[in-house]
Amino acid sequence: MKRLMTVDEANEESAETKKTYTYSQLEKNTSAFATSLLKKFGLKPGDVVAVMLPNCPEFPVVAFGSFQAGCVLTTVNPIYKEFELKHQITITEPKLFITIPECYDIVSKSLKAANIQAKIVLVDNPSKPVPDGVVRYSEVAESGEADFGLLDKVERKGDDVACIPFSSGTTGLPKGVEITFDNILAGMEVMHQKENCFPHVANSDFQDILPAFLPFFHIYGLVIGLMGHLSKGCKLVTMAKFSASLYLDILKTQQTTLLYIVPPVAILLGKHPDVNETHYRSVRHIICGAAPLAGSDVEAILHKSKRPIEFNQGFGMTETTSLGTSTFKGTKNVDFNACGVPMASVQLMFADPITGNPVPVGQSGEMYIKSPTVMKGYHKNPKATEETMTKDGFFKTGDLGYFRPGVGLFITDRIKELIKVKGMQVAPAELESLLRTHPAVQDAAVIGVPHEFYGEAPKAFIIRKNGLKITEEELQDFVASKVAVYKKIEEVMFVDEIPKTASGKILRKELKKMYA
């Protein structure tokens, strides 16, 4: 009889530092960290813990430890600037902040600007000094002791909020998405369904290995990449930052069996001149999500592999916790332009974007989704929640598409305003509000325009204030100094007028017709 994964086998390895965690270390450090949250920091169930870390072996300790202590985890992009971070922590009000030395100044300034008192824990080099008042991660996780008597008393219900990742939603600034424990468990159940169970349960003879570059602060990386695969005993090779050369090296040296990717990486795998069949020699499944991928790009990958590989596409959002649709394992004659079929317990409906009335099967409409994985709501934003949830529990995705029976879901367009850059969400309203703070800008509008490598990129339309002079480069530099690199403005166009409705809403489709 084959044994399951032992606690002394690797669950994570850092591609950069080569640091490795075993499952027994993960369990021990998680419980020690959870105990520290309650004892050392005096946190209570329901208090918010912010984590601003790149993908690293310490991330799951912080995530699972927060859950074990009954705290709420809010995940933060580690390349955020002060402008973005202040917005998130003002909404979530964390009591504790876990980050790395490179982010310390931004975190400290943002907490002060938001007038939030939170202790800071640094995942750092133990040989280097830390600022006064800062606690080392090693003190609270690696050398601490677990108090199971205390942890066993923590009580949380299934519909309590477990984590608050951020999403651009359909309009406006990024919003905190309330993901419950029930949502996560339902997402795990989806991952364990036979027809969608890409990873195998590890045993004495086999362990699935995957490069974990999808950011853990994002729902795709957190629930599917991290939680879903640790629950199967897989080994994750974490990448703090995506690098094509490092990624390709991992494929060659680590005997990777599963690849979870986004469209820009799919294009890399299909078109990069250095990629050949040796990169795919152990790969069994490739799963792509985050944004639509052309069938021709899939064919390019399969052509390079020169061996049978199952390629699956899926659809999911931060608001749906996990996959809503996916190509099932073993599906024959797959249309690679489709995003699969509904997962277990998922209902899809397509509605007229104007009237909200259902449209016939096969006809294009706004996609609504209902599932046990759909979020509880937007944190401290009942108005946005009400606008995106129907009375009978369907979430309005803001995506236009249709379902072809026997084939699957096709996404054709977006009603929602967000821009998808390399699979990451960019809210036009966030960039517009930032641009309007520049002294030479009277008004601004931002739309997404096609980009050869990124999928889309932000383009800004600017009305100068009182004829003041400002160049495209100056505005691009201004924005780049305040936001994460993927949000930078790719193009700037100076205009005399920005089309708007009578109520002042920007007519983005008109902008695209006029200028894009």
TrEMBL record:
One of its GO terms (cellular component) is peroxisome. One of its GO terms (molecular function) is long-chain fatty acid-CoA ligase activity. InterPro entries: AMP-bd_C (IPR025110), AMP-bd_C_sf (IPR045851), AMP-binding_CS (IPR020845), AMP-dep_synth/lig_dom (IPR000873), ANL_N_sf (IPR042099). Gene3D superfamilies: 3.30.300.30, N-terminal domain of ligase-like. Transmembrane segments: none annotated. It is found in: Peroxisome. Residues 17-379 form the AMP-dependent synthetase/ligase domain. The keyword Endoplasmic reticulum does not apply. Keywords: Peroxisome. GO terms for biological process: fatty-acyl-CoA biosynthetic process. Its main location: other. Residues 430-505 form the AMP-binding enzyme C-terminal domain. Belongs to the ATP-dependent AMP-binding enzyme family. This is SFRICE_012980. The lineage of its organism: Eukaryota, Metazoa, Ecdysozoa, Arthropoda, Hexapoda.
